């Protein structure tokens, strides 16, 4: 364990680019939104000042309208596609044009609840920016106030090539004037682990539409090529808004508590729209057509993290969780292993992700599902101890896949072993 802890700290330090951390060397050379959220929590266990710097750097890229972009480009790395020249957001620093699952407030709450006066002071400092970020999600991603958060690109879900998006992606017409481009991802990683070319053309079509509107998010929500509800973003946003309310109460920010309560009630109610009777669970859904995805994913299972559902709905989700865990050696797979589209090694079509497990464990433990929480927790531990800081893992045999020195996997490991990390730091001074 001690050597994996050292390896985790070393991995994060190696990916430090001076004030911000990249997900991994080469494959992902910039700062990513939710990666940095989780990574900050990991860094916090060995360097509080540096953890807050990670957060401040991410928030430094916040747009005027409140959006925190999914990638921040501080330097141009020709090795990565699509870079700043493709997004053309005209922001300083340059960034991508949409967001990612808003985990930031939840990670900050964890730091403050276990922290010192220093953490409280920093939380105070960033609080207005977190409010702006949540207001942006509430308005730009749900302009009609339905309580259903829409994502405008599969990448906004953070679960890039999950089959959940096939419904929305299949209706996208790739325009004749699609920009010509050359992918870079397949030169770093085996192409059978990466999205297909056809999918990639559609990913780029959405970006081209966004930039043609000048990144006008009202228009993109109303007319863009893709608009789906994602149980992941829905429940993560709901949880983060609750955590923001707790933070507001701790910090004495009374002026925003009613607003946050209203938002929580609305998004909680809106979550019902994601319930798919055919499978007895929460699924992704196309907002314009109402068509459902028909599989249970690790994002569906975040319903416990979002604290939604009637007692019957919760029981049904727990039953799915038990069934899926029984079908694989290591949980929680990103796609139902009993569904025909399951691929144990392809990215978000099957593999296990430590960050998702981290949120699942928190949600299941809060809901009193201790056995399930314990199983996922110990699987995460075993996977990382066996394979190291891999990007994601095969749920059937545990093989580590993707990039091999991943910051967020290291961060989750440090969080899991936090007591041991503290002891080790004491021993080594
Ligand atoms: C991939 C993942 C996304 C992550 C990024 C950087 O695009 O799908 O969730 O943020 O890599 O690690």
Short synopsis of the structure:
The protein has 429 residues and is mostly helical. It is built from 18 helices and ten strands. It has one domain (2-428): Glycosyltransferase (Alpha/alpha barrel).
Structure report:
The chain is mainly alpha-helical and 429 residues long. The protein has a single domain (2-428), classed as Alpha/alpha barrel (Glycosyltransferase), CATH 1.50.10. The chain has helices spanning 2-14, 33-44, 48-60, 84-87, 104-113, 117-140, 166-170, 185-188, 197-212, 217-223, 231-251, 257-270, 303-306, 311-326, 354-366, 370-387, 407-416, 418-428, and strands at 31-32, 71-73, 94-95, 150-151, 228-229, 275-276, 281-282, 285-286, 392-393, 400-401. α2 (33-44) runs parallel beside α17 (407-416), α5 packs antiparallel against α6 (117-140) and α16 packs across α17. The mean pLDDT is 96. The protein binds alpha-D-glucopyranose (GLC). Alpha-D-glucopyranose (GLC) binds next to α2.
SSE blueprint and pairings:
Blueprint: H1 2-14, E1 31-32, H2 33-44, H3 48-60, E2 71-73, H4 84-87, E3 94-95, H5 104-113, H6 117-140, E4 150-151, H7 166-170, H8 185-188, H9 197-212, H10 217-223, E5 228-229, H11 231-251, H12 257-270, E6 275-276, E7 281-282, E8 285-286, H13 303-306, H14 311-326, H15 354-366, H16 370-387, E9 392-393, E10 400-401, H17 407-416, H18 418-428
Antiparallel strand pairs: 1-2, 2-3, 4-5, 5-8, 6-7, 9-10
Helix pairs in contact: 1-17, 2-3, 2-5, 2-17, 3-6, 5-6, 5-11, 6-11, 11-12, 15-16, 16-17
Bound molecules: alpha-D-glucopyranose.
């Amino acid at each position: 364990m001690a050597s994996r802890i050292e390896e985790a700290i070393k991995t994060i330090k190696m990916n430090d680019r001076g004030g911000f951390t990249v997900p991994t060397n080469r494959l992902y050379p910039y700062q990513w939104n939710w990666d940095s959220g989780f990574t900050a929590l990991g860094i916090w266990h060995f360097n509080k000042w540096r953890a807050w710097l990670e957060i401040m750097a991410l928030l430094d890229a916040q747009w005027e309208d409140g959006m925190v972009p999914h990638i921040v480009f501080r330097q141009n790395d020709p090795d990565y596609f699509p870079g700043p020249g493709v997004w053309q957001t005209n922001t300083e620093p340059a960034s991508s044009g949409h967001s990612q699952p808003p985990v930031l407030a939840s990670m900050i709450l964890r730091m403050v609840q276990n922290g010192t006066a220093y953490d409280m002071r920093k939380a105070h400092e960033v609080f207005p920016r977190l409010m702006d970020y949540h207001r942006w999600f509430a308005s730009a991603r749900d302009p009609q106030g339905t309580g259903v958060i829409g994502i405008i690109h599969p990448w906004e879900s953070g679960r890039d090539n999950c089959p959940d998006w096939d419904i929305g992606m299949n209706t996208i017409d790739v325009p004749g004037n699609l920009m010509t481009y050359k992918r870079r991802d397949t030169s770093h990683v085996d192409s059978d682990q990466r999205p297909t070319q056809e999918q990639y053309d559609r990913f780029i079509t959405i970006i081209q539409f966004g930039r043609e509107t000048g990144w006008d998010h009202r228009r993109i929500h109303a007319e863009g090529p893709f608009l789906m509800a994602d149980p992941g973003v829905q429940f993560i946003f709901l949880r983060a808004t609750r955590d923001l309310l707790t933070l507001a109460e701790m910090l004495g920010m009374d002026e925003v508590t009613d607003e946050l309560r209203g938002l929580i009630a609305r998004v909680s109610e809106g979550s019902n729209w994601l319930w798919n009777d055919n499978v007895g669970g929460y699924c992704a859904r196309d907002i314009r057509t109402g068509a459902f995805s028909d599989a249970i994913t690790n994002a569906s299972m975040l319903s416990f993290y979002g604290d939604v559902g009637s007692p019957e709905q919760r029981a049904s989700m727990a039953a799915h969780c038990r069934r899926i865990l029984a079908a694989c050696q290591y949980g929680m797979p990103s796609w139902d292993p009993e569904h025909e589209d399951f691929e144990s090694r392809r990215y978000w079509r099957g593999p296990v992700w430590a960050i998702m497990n981290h949120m699942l464990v928190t949600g299941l433990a809060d809901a009193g599902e201790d056995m399930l929480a314990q199983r996922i927790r110990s699987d995460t531990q075993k996977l990382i101890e066996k394979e190291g800081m891999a990007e994601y893992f095969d749920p059937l045999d545990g093989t580590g896949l993707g990039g091999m020195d991943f910051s967020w996997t290291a961060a989750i490991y440090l969080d899991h072993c936090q007591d041991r990390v503290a002891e080790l730091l004491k021993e080594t001074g």
